[in-house]
Design goal:
The protein is α/β, with parallel strands linked by helices and about 750 residues long. Helix content is about 35%, strand content about 10%. α10 crosses α11. It binds beta-D-glucopyranuronic acid. Beta-D-glucopyranuronic acid (BDP) binds next to loops.
């Protein structure tokens, strides 16, 4: 039982019925809101909504005996939610045909559901239906699915209905996920650190496992199930071979057991060289029979411990990781090696398309993945899913969609998003990623004419793909509030919701998250949602406007547009490589006169991106090198517009801070102050980005600032010298700069 239920139970038994009226206050005090409860706070319902649904709310009953661990989790959650929201113990009874009962189950677990026409057939193994209806002459609410996990999802959906103050009757809700595998990728190392993690250490306590199972694992699983996340890759893509040793596999099995009742399967990142490092073989060549046998035996060992193991995630031939290229083999030969070992158990390989070489003479970095994988279309086994980042570079604040989407009709493709805000201000900035994810999903590849969106590629509807998946790099750590900040929680939430339904609206999801996380008070909800919806564009404005990308410092936090290639830094790990700013202009020419990366898109899209006139302004410098004085549709020159975007980004963040400050009376002090302080950090960060970027680009353009724009307060030299030595989540042990460059506090 989680900490939350235990606390709720203690409260209700100790106090008894007489003191129930006092419960709301006690609940608030017992859970001084520190963000732990995420969007599953279940605070007491008051006011008009309760008046309206008083009858149904008062009579809610939870079925007592649940046979499977999943159904038990479902009924406990319902009890927990109702007890919290109604501020009184909710009766649990096995006989659920009384008026006002909630009947929970599958046709197998609850035979009384069998005669009802619930339309379950259309809902697959994970869908659910929620209906208010007459059952044996009683007025009941049915939450049903074809499987127990469908029922669990239905319970969370029903609770959301109450949490967001939606009608409780009549209800006729039916839903099924459009994507089968909805996976969180943890970039967690076995030593407890998290690559690009900004919320403390890893939540997986490897040393304590398998003996101690923290209740946090269960609360994590509940939160995932509440948004339909059903897969977890436990360890970093830059994988340690130790994960495949018996010592760690026992620990993985223990975690799998905790997550299983919540419908979550475990997957592992594995290194391609494991047959050498773990198996003591001389090679990891995919065509070597000893290597094949080794993987088969290892996979058999894993399935003995974890019968529902999901499969492997592989980062190969990328950023120093070993891969099939080391043996002159293709990515498909590498992927199929693992796929064949996993196939007998229905396991899959998520093979990353993030493959590139940092050779200084290699082609335009953003072309590489397409050029490597496109010729391999149709060569991957059926249980391989190619995992493609949303853009062709690397999780930048804005990128065009990856050209592999729509270009591999004979290959299973999945989308990889980054929930942790590696390039968007890390833990402190308030950036709601729903709009970024939505932009990626709605991008139209034109692969089969208009409407061939990325969402339709990955949900299987465009090419009839039989297995479908989506992954998000998790932003979860050991911080009490899970994600480093309260608003970062919304990104975990929206990832799950869009994974369930990639066509859902980022705005609607934000609204529901705000209502559940904070309050349903409209004067709070409205401005906060507005703030969230504009927040991603604000960070684009102050860091990478007009299609610029990769202008950050080496820590991926703060500006570094002056960083140039050197003996120690390959060109495509520098910033000047991407901005290509010179005396004439700025931007990367990816048209036919440049790297011709545009040609990787379908003709309609390629023509649009290649045309200076038709290229969307927010991707202009991604595709074109334009003179500083080139005039945009707005009438501004590129130079003026660049500067005005930086300025606008700062203004937007200041506005966010003002908005938030006015709302203090709607939020408990801890969450309010944390967010408020982080917004102040973000204002400084935005100013830093604006000033350093203007100082750098002005040293190249030599143009005056547009009227009314103040010059940066420091010299370019000072911005270049400013360095933050240590940053959580940045791999590599040493400081990012020597102490003689000690930054001067601003
Ligand atoms: C980059 C991150 C790096 C990851 C890499 C990846 O900086 O830490 O290992 O992506 O996706 O953005 O493999």
């Amino acid at each position: 039982m989680s900490q939350l239920t235990q606390a709720a139970r203690r409260c209700t038994t100790v106090l008894g019925a007489a003191a129930l009226l006092a419960l709301p206050t006690l609940f608030a005090a017992a859970h001084a809101a520190d963000g732990y409860r995420l969007w599953l706070r279940y605070v007491p319902v008051h006011g008009a909504w309760l008046q309206r649904y008083r009858r149904s709310a008062r009579e809610l009953l939870v079925p007592g005996a649940a046979r499977s661990p999943t159904l038990r989790a479902a009924s406990e959650e319902l009890e927990r939610g109702l007890t919290g929201m109604l501020a009184r113990p909710v009766p649990t009874e096995p006989a659920v045909t009384r008026n006002g009962a909630i009947v929970l189950g599958t046709p197998q677990s609850a035979p009384l559901l069998r005669p009802l026409h619930l339309g379950l057939r259309r809902l697959g193994r994970q869908g659910y239906v929620i209906r208010t209806l007459e059952l044996r002459g009683r007025h009941v609410t049915v939450i049903a699915g074809n499987t127990d996990v469908g029922v669990l999802y239905g319970v969370f959906r029903f609770l959301r209905q109450m949490q967001t103050r939606q009608p409780l009757e009549p209800l006729a809700i039916a839903s099924r996920p459009k994507i089968r595998r909805r996976v969180l990728d943890f970039w967690d190392n076995l030593n407890g650190s998290v690559e690009r993690g900004y919320a403390g250490d890893s939540i997986w306590k490897w040393r304590e496992l398998p003996t101690y199972l923290s209740p946090r694992y269960t609360d994590f699983a509940r939160a995932c199930a509440s948004v339909g996340i059903n897969g977890v890759v436990l360890n970093n893509v830059n994988a340690s071979p130790w994960i495949l040793t018996p010592l760690y596999l026992t620990k993985v099995a223990a975690l799998a057991k905790v997550l299983r009742p919540y419908g979550i399967r475990v997957y592992l990142s594995v290194p391609f060289s494991a047959p050498i490092t773990v198996g003591k073989l001389a090679t990891a060549d995919p065509l070597d029979t000893a290597v094949q046998t080794w993987w088969q035996a290892k996979v058999a060992e894993i399935y003995r411990a974890i019968p529902d193991f999901g499969g492997f995630l592989m980062k190969a031939d990328s950023e120093g990781e070993p891969g099939p290229e080391n043996y002159g083999r293709t990515q498909a030969q590498g992927a199929n090696l693992l796929a064949r070992a996993l196939a007998p158990y229905h396991g899959i390989v998520m093979w990353r398309a993030f493959v590139y070489s940092t050779n200084p003479h290699s082609e335009d970095r953003v072309r590489q993945s397409y050029d490597i994988f496109k010729p391999l279309d149709g060569k991957f086994d059926r249980n391989v899913i190619l995992q493609v980042k949303n853009g062709p570079l690397d999780f930048q604040p804005r990128e065009p969609f990856h050209p592999l989407f729509g270009a591999m009709p004979h290959t299973h493709l999945m989308l990889e998003l980054e929930i942790t805000k590696e390039y968007l201000g890390q833990q402190t900035s308030l950036v709601y990623l729903g709009t970024l994810f939505q932009e990626a999903l709605r991008a139209d590849t034109w692969a089969r004419g208009p409407g061939s969106t990325v969402a339709r590629v990955i949900d299987g509807s465009l090419y009839g793909q039989h297995d479908t998946a989506i992954a998000g790099v998790a932003n979860i750590g050991s911080d009490r509030n899970w994600c480093g900040s309260i608003f970062n929680q919304s990104n975990w939430y929206v990832f799950g919701r869009l994974a369930w339904n990639p066509d859902a609206s980022a705005r609607t999801i934000a609204t529901q998250w705000v209502r559940m996380t904070f309050t349903n008070a409209v004067p709070f909800v409205r401005p906060v949602v507005r703030m969230m919806m504009g927040s991603r564009e604000a960070v684009v404005d102050y860091s990478d406007p007009l299609g610029l990308a990769s202008q950050m410092a080496g820590t991926h936090y703060g500006p570094g547009p002056w960083i140039a290639p050197s003996k120690h830094l390959p060109p495509d790990w520098s910033d000047t490589y991407y901005s290509r700013a010179d005396a004439e202009g700025i931007g990367f020419d990816r048209t036919a006169s440049g790297s011709d990366a545009v040609a990787q898109y379908a003709p309609h899209v390629a023509a649009k991106f290649a045309s200076l006139k038709h290229c969307p302004e927010n991707l202009l410098l991604w595709f074109h090198h334009v003179p500083w004085t080139y005039r945009l549709a707005s009438g501004h020159t590129v130079w003026d517009s660049l500067v005005l975007h930086y300025v606008r980004g700062v203004v937007a963040v200041k506005r966010m801070r003002t908005t938030w400050r006015k709302l203090s009376h709607y939020v408990d002090p801890r969450r309010f102050q944390l967010t408020s302080a982080f917004l102040t950090i973000q204002v400084h960060e935005a100013e830093w980005w604006r000033d350093a970027s203007i100082a750098y680009f002005q040293s190249i353009s030599h143009l005056p600032l547009p009227p009314g724009v103040a010059p940066p307060p420091d010299t370019l030299k000072a911005y270049e010298a400013f360095c933050i030595p240590y940053l959580e989540g940045t791999p590599g042990a040493g400081p990012a700069c020597p102490p003689d460059d000690a930054p001067v506090p601003r």
